[in-house]
């Protein structure tokens, strides 16, 4: 599963200067070790293509072997005359898990002994085990959890492999909004780096995309990222966001299927987002696995936040409506994050049970907005994915689960949601 706990202190409000930094300044500000030289096959600015897919994979954790498999899947598709596939993969040495029930253990795959971070322009090949694309750069100790390093990678990829449109994938462990900083001890957001003990928070990811010049589609190859709070931070970052409400299989996206689908139809950003779905929800669904994945329109996140602010204020002002959640919370769909509620299902709970006309009307407004505008596509595949409608929101199951760090989120500062959920859960001590 691509999810991991723990974190470090970082005050994002100290870093807005990075939006205007050059590529060289971003690299320096991130404390990135310069690429070792000489590097065979260093990039020469390529011709303009339809798409450049920028894939940033942090496997400086227990995903070190999975990341090698991911890059080999990318090579099975390869860059084409229409699509550049540009990757930065950081990793540490990992060994296959010990299987006590097997007489012969899984062998260590080729090329599993290198560490640090490497950048590749993915070349097509048929070798499923070895990475044959030449390394364009090698950073011996790049912090994959530093948003400024991600920003520099985005800018570098776009400068050397220009395209009409850009799709960014960030992969590794993820835990949605819980990567908010401060305070110390927060769980990871995305791109967990075990060596530095760092990660990229939702607000930092938005800063990285902005500093890197923006993208058309953003996709999380990680667990639990498709939340209201996360998407709100990325509301100006892309036309579409692709992600999962639930934990994802350790192998993550099938990049061969995804990239082949994009090459076959290198059309508009929505077509590219749907190519990601082919490499995840459609792929795992064909294998009878339960997964969730959705496409949402982040440009509408501010409008959604306004509707949720109205709903939260109405509920907080009504003792009978505050009681509804505490009475019926165990009937709501549970994700691996037990405090994540499916937003559509939560609103339906209030629409079906509230005796307050204004609350019912507000809940229906959110339901209509989600299904008609905000969620562009939702795949809830398999029997375990029932009642996953494309977007989650934080609503603690118990008052002991409430964490003050939630109040530091951009979404919390913009709405009354944090005040409402705190009032509701603490009314049932």
Looking at this protein, list some descriptive labels.
429 residues, alpha/beta, Rossmann fold, 2 domains, two-stranded antiparallel ribbon, 14 helices, 13 strands, globular, disordered N terminus
What can you see in these coordinates?
- The protein has a nine-stranded mixed β-sheet with strand order 4-3-2-1-5-8-9-10-12, sandwiched between helices. A two-stranded antiparallel ribbon has the order 6-7.
- The chain has two domains: 12-296, Rossmann fold (3-Layer(aba) Sandwich), CATH 3.40.50; 301-426, no CATH class.
- It has 429 residues and is of the alpha/beta class.
- The chain has helices spanning 23-29, 64-77, 147-160, 202-211, 228-233, 255-264, 269-278, 281-285, 301-316, 319-328, 343-353, 357-374, 410-414, 417-426; strands spanning 49-59, 83-91, 116-121, 135-139, 163-171, 190-193, 198-200, 217-221, 240-243, 291-296, 340-342, 375-381, 392-394.
- Helix content is 34%, strand content 17%.
- Helix 2 links the parallel strand 1 (49-59) and strand 2 (83-91).
- The longest helix is centred in the C-terminal third of the chain and has 18 residues, at 357-374.
């Amino acid at each position: 599963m691509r999810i991991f706990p723990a974190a470090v202190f970082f005050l994002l409000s100290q870093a807005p200067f990075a939006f205007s930094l050059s590529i060289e300044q971003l690299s320096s500000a991130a404390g990135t070790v310069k690429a070792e030289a000489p590097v065979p096959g260093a990039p020469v600015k390529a011709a303009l293509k339809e798409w450049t897919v920028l894939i940033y994979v942090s496997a400086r954790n227990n995903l070190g072997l999975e990341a090698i498999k991911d890059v080999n899947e990318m090579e099975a598709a390869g860059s084409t005359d229409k699509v550049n596939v540009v990757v930065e993969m950081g990793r540490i040495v990992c060994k296959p898990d010990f299987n006590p029930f097997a007489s012969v253990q899984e062998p260590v795959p080729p090329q599993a002994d290198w560490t640090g971070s490497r950048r590749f322009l993915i070349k097509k090949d048929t070798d499923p085990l070895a990475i044959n694309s030449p390394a364009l750069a090698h950073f011996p100790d790049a912090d994959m959890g530093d948003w400024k390093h991600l920003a520099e990678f985005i800018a570098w990829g776009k400068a050397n492999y220009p395209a009409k449109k850009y799709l960014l994938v960030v992969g590794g462990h993820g835990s949605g909004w819980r990567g908010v900083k401060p305070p110390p001890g927060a769980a990871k957001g995305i791109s967990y780096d075990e060596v530095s003990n760092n990660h990229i928070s939702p607000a930092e990811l938005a800063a990285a995309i902005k500093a890197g010049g923006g993208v058309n589609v953003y996709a999380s190859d990680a667990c639990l990222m498709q939340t209201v709070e996360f998407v709100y931070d990325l509301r100006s970052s892309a036309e579409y966001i692709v992600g999962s409400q639930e934990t994802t299989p350790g192998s993550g996206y099938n990049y061969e299927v995804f990239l082949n689908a994009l090459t076959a139809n290198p059309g508009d950003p929505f077509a590219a987002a749907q190519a990601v779905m082919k490499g995840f929800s459609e792929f795992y669904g064909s294998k009878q696995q339960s997964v969730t994945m959705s496409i949402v329109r982040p440009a509408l996140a501010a409008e959604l936040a306004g509707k949720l602010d109205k709903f939260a204020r109405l509920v907080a002002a009504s003792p009978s409506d505050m009681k509804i959640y505490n009475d019926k919370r165990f009937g709501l769909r549970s994700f691996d994050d037990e405090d994540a509620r499916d937003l559509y299902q939560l609103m339906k709970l209030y629409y079906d049970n509230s005796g307050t006309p204004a609350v019912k009307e507000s809940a229906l407004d959110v339901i209509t907005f989600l299904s008609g505008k905000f969620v562009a596509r939702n795949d809830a595949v398999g029997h375990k994915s029932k009642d996953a409608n494309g977007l989650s929101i934080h609503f603690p199951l118990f008052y002991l689960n409430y964490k003050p760090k939630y109040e530091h989120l951009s979404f919390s500062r913009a709405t009354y949601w944090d005040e409402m959920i705190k009032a509701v859960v603490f009314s049932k001590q």
